[in-house]
Protein: Aspartate--tRNA ligase
Amino acid sequence: MLADAKANMGKEVEFSGCVHRIKNMGSIAFIVVRTSRDVIQTVYSADNCKDSIEGLREGFFVNVKGIVKENPKDFNGLEIELDSIKLISTNAAELPLKISQGRLNCTIEVNLDNRAASLRNPYERAIFKLQEGLVQGMHKFMQANNFTEIHSPKIVAQGAEGGANIFRLDYFGKSAFLNQSPQFYKQMAVAFFDRVYEIAPVYRAEKHATSRHINEYIGLDFEMGYIDSMYDVMKMEIAMLKSIFEYIKENYQNELKILEADVPEIKEVPSIKFADAIELLRGGEGSGKKFDLDPEDEVNLGKYAKEKYDSDFIFVTHFPSSKPPFYAMNSREDPREAYKFDLLFRGLEITSGGQRIHDYNEQVEKMKAQGLDPDDFKNYLEAHKYGLPPHGGLGIGLERLLMKLLNKNNIRETSLFPRDINRLLP
Amino acid sequence: MLADAKANMGKEVEFSGCVHRIKNMGSIAFIVVRTSRDVIQTVYSADNCKDSIEGLREGFFVNVKGIVKENPKDFNGLEIELDSIKLISTNAAELPLKISQGRLNCTIEVNLDNRAASLRNPYERAIFKLQEGLVQGMHKFMQANNFTEIHSPKIVAQGAEGGANIFRLDYFGKSAFLNQSPQFYKQMAVAFFDRVYEIAPVYRAEKHATSRHINEYIGLDFEMGYIDSMYDVMKMEIAMLKSIFEYIKENYQNELKILEADVPEIKEVPSIKFADAIELLRGGEGSGKKFDLDPEDEVNLGKYAKEKYDSDFIFVTHFPSSKPPFYAMNSREDPREAYKFDLLFRGLEITSGGQRIHDYNEQVEKMKAQGLDPDDFKNYLEAHKYGLPPHGGLGIGLERLLMKLLNKNNIRETSLFPRDINRLLP
Structure:
C-alpha cells in the first residue's frame, strides 16, 4: 500500500486496514492505519471528512479514502488527508498488550501466550515477513541452479537420524514416527532429479528446553549429485546464502529497517577441521576424546572467525567418522574422519552437511561399523543398490538462520507459533 | 542440459548423467544418458571416443564429452558424438523394473513398493517435476498478489476440522495431534498480514482406502482479508489456477509433452448452489436431506459442467449451514445455508473454501449451534475477540489437482511417497 501512496502524491488513494493508533487532538485526529506491511498515518478533520469518527477505536477495521500529502517528519514521509472513513469490522475486546508503540514491552512467554495479539505489533510481524524473504530467496536460488523441489512424507516408519529424539504416533495400529529430516528421500531423489531441495517441517523430540531448540522447525534442505567433494556443497551453500541476503536486501528493505537487521556481507568463509578446532579451543586437553562441539565451543569459534577473519561464518569440517550420521562418507585420507561439516553463523550451528556415501557396499559396511543393522534400512539402501552418483547436501534450520540474522537470543522469537517441551499452544 | 546442447549445435558439450539405455551395434553403440529433466542420445564409436565402454552397464553414472549433432529422428532432434566417457559410479544390482522404455509396465503397488527404482522412469519423474511447477506457479501468483507465506505448526493441541479423522501423538506425555489444515493459523494471520498462504503437509486419518484419499498430502492454502463476499475468494482461485496453468505451459513444456497432459483453458467457471445441484442430480428425492456431495454426485456434476458449459471446473456453493465447518459464515439471505463452496475439477472436489465468520459473538453462537463448546477454542477465538476483518480462503489438495490434470485414476500416482492406511514405506 505504501508504494501505491508514494506513487500517488497529491492524489486520492483508497485502502483498508486496521486502526493501529488514534491520537485525538479535538478538531483533528491522527489515525494510524496498519496495512499488510506498513503503518500509515491518516489525518482526520471534520471539515474535510464526510464521515464521523465517533466511537472509532483502536483495533477496528476501516476503509479509508484521502489525498496523499508529503510529511517529512513521518516515518514514511507522507500522510493521508481523509475524505472518508468507513467502518468494516469491530472487536469484542481490547488487546491485552500494547502493540502500537515500537517494540512489545513484555516477556517472551507473554508474547507467545498471546500470539493472536502480539503478532499485530509491526516489529513482531516484520520478523515473519523477513522469514518469508529467506524462503523466497532460497526458492529463487535453487530454481536458478536446477534444483527440483520435492515433498517427502513426514510420517515415516523410521527416522533419518535415529536415536531417542523422535516423536512416535499411532498409525492405524502401527507404530510410526515424525521424520527428523528428509535425508533418505533427498538421497533417493538425487538418482532421478540430480539436484533436489525441500522446505518443510522437521521434528525433533528434544527433551531439553534451550534457547536454541524448538521441537518443530522448518528445514531448508538440499542435496546435489555429481559432486567432486563436500567442498562443492559448501560452495553452493555460500552462494545460496549470498543470494538470499541479496534478495532480502532488495525486497524486504522496510522490514530490515524496522528490525534493525544486520545483514552480513559474505566474503571468504573460513574453514577449520574439527580436530584443529578442538585443539584451538582446549589445547591438548580433551582433543581426541570429544566427538562434537558444545554450545560454548560454537560461541568461541564464532569469536575466533570474527577476530581472525572478520567473518560472521565459519565451517567446521571432518568430524569423527565414528559419530553419526551413518550416511557420512569417511575421508579417503584418514578414515577416522568423515566428510561432514557444520556451518556456524555468529557462533551458532545453523547447518549440518557433507558428502554422503553413494556406494552400496560402503554404506552397508559403515552401518555395521556403527552397530546398525542394514536390514533395518532396506528401503533406503535400495537407492544405493540400484546406483547413486556421488552426492552431498545439507540442512539449514530456518528459525536459527533468522535468529542469528536478527541477533536474537531465543529461537522462539523467530518461530511464528513455536513448539517446545512446554508449549503446544496457540 | 538439453537446452545447453541445443544452443551448442556442432560444438563440444560436457555433462554427467545416468546410463539409461545401451544399444550396442558392434562397431558403434547408442548410449542414452539420463540427466535431471532429459534423456539424451549419445553415439559411441571406437574411432571417435578415446575411452572404452567395455563393462559399461545400464544404471551406471558417467561423465561424457562430445560434439552435438542434429538428428531429426531423435525425440530431442539431436545426439552427442562421444569424444570421451568416464565412469563416475556403478550399481550393486540391476533395477527390478524396466524403466527405460516409455511407461512402466507394472501395477501401482509394484511401482510404489519400488519407488527408488520406479521414479527413475522418465514418465514417473515427470509427474513430480510438473508437481513442482504447480507449486512454483502458486508462489509466483501469491507473491504478485501481496500474499505473505507463513509456516504454521503441524503438531497441535487441537485439529482444525475436529472429528475422528485425526492422528494422535504423544507429546512429552501430553496428547497432541497432527493438524488437519492450517485454518486457525491462517485466520489469525489475516489480522496482521491481510493475505496469507501456506504450502505444507496436511494430515487426515481417513480409515478408508479410496483412490482419492491419502493420509498425508500437500495443502495449498490461502486466506484473504477485506473481502466483500466469498465470490472474491472464488475469483482469486480462478485467477490463480489460470496463472499456474500458464506458468507450467511456459516452463514445463517438456514434462507436459512426456505426460501427454491436457491442461484446460479456463474460461468462465459455472457455479451452482448445493440445493440446486441436489435437485438437478436427484430431482425431488433426497433434496433437503443430503448434507454433502458423494463421489458419484461429483462425477455427475463434472459431466454436467462439461456438457452444458464446456467447463472442466464447476463451483458448488451455499452448503447447509448445519454442517461443518463451524467457521463458515451463514448466509445473510437464508441462514440455513453457509457461504461455503467447493470447486470440482473434472468431477472431483479439489477445493473447499468460503467466507469465514469474523465477528466474535457470531462465531461463538455458531459453535454452540453446532454443539461445540467455545471454551475448547479459546486460543483460536482470541483472533476474533481482538478483531478480524471480513475474510475468506480455501485449501487445494496438490495431489488431487495434479491427479485430475493428468487424468489419473488414483491419487497415489501423484504423490512422491504416498501414505495410506496400508502404506508407510518407503
